[in-house]
Amino acid sequence: MDTAVWQSLLCAIGGGFFMGLYPLFIKTKPVLEAKVHPVVFQLYKSTLVFLTGFLLLIPRATRKLPDGEPLYAFNWWAVVSAAFWVPSGLLTIGSVPIIGMAMQVAVSCAANAILTFLVFWLYFGSKMKEYPCGANCHYYRAPIYLVTTVLGMFALIFAPALAVKLGLEKAKDEESNQNERSRLLPINDASEGGNKKKTSYFMFVLGLGLSVGCGVFAAVQYAVLTVAKKDVEKANNCSVKAATCLPEVNEEYDNFGSWLVSFGIGALGVTLILLLIVSLFRAMTGQPMLSLHWGVLKRSGVAAGVCWSIANFLIIAGNVLHGNAVVLAQVLSFQIITSGLFGMLWYGEGGGRGSKVIWSIAAIWTLVSMVLLGLEKSA
Question: Closest by alpha carbon to 81, among 348, 270, 352, 251?
Fold first, then answer.
């Protein structure tokens, strides 16, 4: 294995670790007790991403650039990408307190992997590996791994029920079930009796839906970069990767320069617009104004933003070294492992011992399927 492969693997491990770690700060006791609005929490993340982008320009500003190469070139496509990233972040912030970080990350990663595969295969025309099955016969393994990924995602969701069906756990009575759900799914206690049970199930389904939406927006966010590069390369008859485009165009798509700066500008701009809309709505409906919760989020909010920024930097570095298809699968895998371990060990998620066993098996099944799916892209 050459040096670039090892370096990309280390980047994927680091990127997956920090990407899986940042939801930990969404569910801290001070954040939940303060009832921080998702847009406010996202504001801290977006601000850190904005600042990180400009920090990466400092090395460029301290050296002499080649003639015609700008220090910074604004890119609207990066703003579009950020416009999909912000909703993904909001859905994460909204769903983690409902279903827990372990399940949220597992479901969103599976949705991300599935959609990314379908988009690149069906829309961008990426070729999949073919396998011989006789004379004039070949088949694809990619659809098989796609199905196994979906099955793994369902096993993650229904781990407690599977544990009961397999006899690993006894079915809990209604009262203990209600207590378990109320610990994981904080809901409005205004409803009584059977209505309260229905609300808990509704919140669980809502959390799953938000998690799937998070994965969808994240997949589109990265697909935008591919669309943008194809568009500019076709228009200028050049290659961004080979740096044969005009200096300004190359700089626009510099992963460690102008692209991240423009992305940060878009992220902060979109978040501020959403913050303004929410604030106006609350003012018109007589609700109290949003609080920035500096006392709480100066730790949790900033930590989440730092973790995401580090993860994004390492993921981009891995992609540059070894390509998106392989690195993305590795990142998602380590992301699931990190969130699963911290969710179960730090927050006690996952239910009883039998449920944890089923969840762990399903998580391993899912991440192996995702890795195999990512490796099916033809060279």
Answer: 270
3-state secondary structure of 132: strand
Residues 225 and 334: their CA atoms lie apart, in Å, by 23
Alpha carbons 255 and 321: distance in angstroms, whole number:
12
Distance of CA 159 to the CA centre of its chain: 22
Give the model confidence (pLDDT) of 278-310 as tens digits: 999 999 999 999 999 999 999 999 999 999 999
The counts of H helices and E strands in the chain are 16, 2
The pair of structure tokens assigned to 316 is 């981009």
Give per-residue pLDDT as tens, 230-240: 888 888 888 87
φ/ψ bin of 125: left (φ > 0), alpha (ψ from -120 to 50), beta (otherwise): left
d(CA 352, CA 176): 12
* Residue with token string 């949705």: 111
> If you ran DSSP here, which 8-state letter would residue 119 be given?
I
> Can you tell me the distance from the alpha carbon of 17 to that of 338, in angstroms, rounded to the nearest whole number?
6
The tokens for 143 are 């659809």
* pTM (predicted TM-score): 0.81
**365, 100, 16, 372: CA torsion to nearest 10:** 20
- What single string gives the DSSP state of each residue in 16-83? HHHHHHGGGGGS-HHHHHHT--HHHHHHHHHHHHHHHHHHTTHHHHTSPPPTT--S----HHHHHHHH
In 3-state terms the chain splits into helix, strand, coil percentages (rounded to 5) of 75, 0, 25
CB atoms within 10 A of CB 257: 21
d(CA 118, CA 342): 30
The answer to whether 355 and 163 have CB atoms below 8 angstroms apart is: yes
CA pair distance 306, 335, nearest whole angstrom: 16
Q: What is the pLDDT of residues 105-153, one digit of tens each?
A: 988 988 887 787 777 666 666 677 888 887 788 888 878 887 887 788 7
Say what angle helices 324-346 and 353-374 make with each other, to 10 degrees. Answer: 170
- Could you give phi then psi for residue 131, rounded to 5 degrees? -125, 135
In DSSP terms, which residues pair with 81 in a beta bridge?
none
Return the percentage of the chain with pLDDT > 90, whole number. 34
Please name the residues in contact with 43: beta carbons below 8 A apart, sequence gap of 6 or more: 271, 272, 275, 292, 301
